[in-house]
Amino acid sequence: MSNYNMKQWVADLIGNHPKKPMPILSFPSVSLLGVGVRELISDSTLQARGMQAVAENTPAAASVSFMDLSVEAECFGATVTVTDDEVPTVKEPILEDAEGAEALVVPVVGSGRTGIYLDAIKKAKALITDRPVFAGMIGPFSLAARLFDLSEIMMACYDDPDMVHLVLEKCTQFLIAYAKAYCDVGADGIVMAEPVAGLLSPSLEEEFSAPYVKQIVDAVQNDDFIVIYHNCGNNVPKMLSSILSTGAAAYHFGNAVDMEKDILDKVPTDVVVMGNIDPVGVLRMGTPESVREATTALLEKCSMYPNFVLSSGCDMPPKTPWENINAFFAAAKDFYNK
To answer: With CB atoms counted within 10 Å of each terminal CB, which end of the chain scores lower, N or C?
Structure first.
């Protein structure tokens, strides 16, 4: 179980000054450890050591585990492409029709690499004692979209919605069990990535994503364990009220949106919003100077909102230079220390 009151921790994110950033920062630990992604995702001790190394090198508000959105789909039977330099991806879908959806078996939590990721969080909690530790997990519609071909599931939402709902029910059943398992090993919460829902129309998101996310939140969130919802899709502003209806403890949005105009202006000030420095164009491909400039500009626009917490727009790529990561944190420190 968590050793933090996480509801209070969320309240403190709003009340604290200066605020600590909370980027989704884990895969760049490969350069700190001197290993490749392939080795990292296969070894729970390395993952825990990587999270520890990030915590020791940054003043982040929390430690966030690896946003590897292939783990759960692989558990269902999908084939995954793994390299030394990039985040793993699902190679090809395993579902094509209603017959396949009916036959789809909900896997046991701990099978595939989920056992490695659970063990990594357990070990990370023993190593990181000065801040909460969050596990990473995919969202229900994003998982279903990895089991289907993306274009197929988009069409099926119109042509065969019952089939899509059946798969979503199975995905949600598994994800609830997976989140509870993370709670059992001591995680303080999960960052749930539901980016594919950001490609849907608002009405489809309201039918095929939000209710299933809410089921997960309702099943696992309490004072000791919270859900941070992540969506980096560009349709987020049009579905914001539906996303907020899921009841997650905090929300994390990508750089496809204008954080101030699209999000903060429309969200109650007691709801934590995180984001949204471009993880590729700025943090991965930029320079320390351009990172500092972008970070300062975002803070100048958004720091007036007490519920804003500076973050990356999504998971930082493995090869993100540490000079840029350090510039991100330094810019935040300098801004708040003015």
So the answer is: C
